[in-house]
Structures are given as C-alpha cells and as structure tokens.
Amino acid sequence: MWFFRSPEIVFGEFALNHLTTIQGRRAFIITDQNIVKLGFADLVKDKLAEAGIESAVFAEVEPDPSLQTAQRGAKEAQAYQPDWIIGLGGGSCMDAAKAAWFLYERPDMDLRDLSPFETLGLRAKARLIAIPTTSGTGAEVTMASVLTDTEENRKVALGSGELVPDLAIVDPVFTMNLPPQITADTGIDALTHAIEGYSCSWNNDFTDGLCLKSIQLVFDYLPRACENGAHDPVAREKMHNAAAIAGLGFGNSFAALAHALGHALGAAFHTPHGRAVGLFLPYTVEFAANAGEGRYAEIARFLGLPAADDDEGAASLVTAIRKLAQRIGLPATARELGISKEAYTQALPALIDNTETDTQMVSSCRVPDTPEVEALFRFAYEGKSIDF
Hints:
11% strand, globular
C-alpha cells in the first residue's frame, strides 16, 4: 500500500491573488531577511490584509536552517497564536516553516523524534501555506523538511505525510529577477529530484509521468531562465512549474544517492544544496548504471537522446547532464567548489558516515558499501568517471 500526497496547488501568473480568498484571523510568515528586503513579505501581507487577516513576520531563517531556528520560530508563533503559518522563500524558509509549524502544533515533541509512521495530529491550531520564491526544492508540495543539527554538524531529514502543506502558491512573479547562479543551483536541484524520483527503488506509476515531464521542462527551459532572466517569463514560469512537479514526483517516491552524498557535502562545507546534489548526480547515475540498475535509458529515450540499449541510454543521459551543468556554470567536480584536497580528505570519515546514515540511501537503486561511498567522494573530487 502506498499514498500519493499533494497540497492544493494554485499556479501561474497572479496565483498569489488566491491569498485574498482564504479564511482566518492571523498568519505567521516565516522567511528570511533577503525576502523581506525584496518586498515579497509585504506583498504577501498586503494580500492577507485584503482577506481581513492580520500577519506577523519571522525573518530569521538562514541558509541551511538549524533546529534552533525552527525552535525560535515556534516560540514566536506560540506567542502570536496564528491559524495560518506561511513559509515564504526558498527551500530553507519552507523547511523551517514546516518544522516551526510542527513544534507550534506539538510543543510536547522534539523535532528529532518526528516519524513518518506516527500520527501527529497536526492542524489543531493552524494550517500551512508554502510560497516558493526559487524554482528548485519542491518543498512547497512535499512531506520533507531538511534542517541542520549545528551541534553534530550534519543534516537532519525529517518527514511525515502530515507535513505536506495545505496550500502551495506557485507564482512565477517571485522568480523573475533571480540571479543566474541561484537559478542554476535551484534548477539542477529540480532535475536531481526528478531523475532520482524516476530511477529510485520506490518509483511508482503515479509519479513516473510527473518526473519525466519535469526532466523535460528543466532541459528545455533552465538554460533560457539562466541566460535570459526576466526577459523570458515563459522560461521562468516553466521552471517554477518544473520544480513543483518534480516535488510531487520525488515527494511521492523518494530521492536517492545524489541527495545522500550532497547532504553530507553541504553540511561539511556549506555548499548550496542544489549545487551539491547536482554535482553528484552524473556520478551516481554512472554508479547505478554500471550494475544495470536505474531506468536511465527510459529517461534518455523520452528526451530523444541516443539509447539503443541501456548502457548507451545511461551514458547519453550522463553526457546531457554534464553539458547542461557546464552551460549554466555549475562545477563538475568537488575541487571546483574551492575545497582544498587536504580539507576534503580530512572530512572524508564524516562525509562517509553522514552519507550512510542519510535517509535517502534506503531508496537508492544501487546502495554502495563503505568503500564505494569513499570512492564516489574521491572520484567526484577529481572528476573521474565511475568505473565500479
């Protein structure tokens, strides 16, 4: 038995206007300082005011949000007593909003104890809205929240079907002026979600089509969005849709090895999430394909790439991923991230341990043993093709 979970999704130009129709008394907006400076928080507050809803802003979310930030947000929410909590921003803001909302609803529980197999009884106090301002994480439609445990210096992936937002507003107005680097980082994250959602061991009939469509949209529109920015609103809207569609895809199957490796790297070296997982994507495709695992030839055929057999299809997909990353200015190796070999080598034991304990490992179509995890990190640093 399996479940397909999704929020109500309002998408496209002027989707934000839907906020004027919701019912409630108070909304608590969880975001970051940059979103406030851009005027996006005020934009949301104005729409809420039209609906007769008071609002307050918690703007302390940092990149790679910590457990402690979520706890502070929950404490302020307890004082404000909202009936809506709104995550406004990139994946960090939406993940922090999910965690703070959980703690607001269940102050008797610890975030580390959150389990997808336990009934939490959320929504007794408030409901959750997610409004993405980047096109990549898909957090607006998923049950996942990834935080950083600053005490242990590792990523903590939380998940529960009850954490899926009630409403996702996917309005491209927020992404029109995103810098090319953020567009690239978040876009490659969406691609990784879709490829892993399709190829992981938890793939299913309900998510396959979503993943394939998202992959196609990213290859078609991510270069345009990076190169043309606000001058190509079609590309911006298509990428915003692609990210949410990928979120529905992998959120109802799962992510896999590239995310496990990327989470470990990001926690150790503070590499942006999308850049980290996207860096490992072609290496993990090679790794799985070498053992005849994955469904990469099917993806290649859907994209019209050479795929006379499974080996050629996987190789074609790897080449396409690397060409896309190069075109949008993303690194092909961990060395290109500016990490010294000495620091990287010193971090290897922690990188390996955090990868092997990451929840994304369980659904990888080929699960590496410890020597293989170490080799994946070493090969990705040097840029070597995976031959094992």
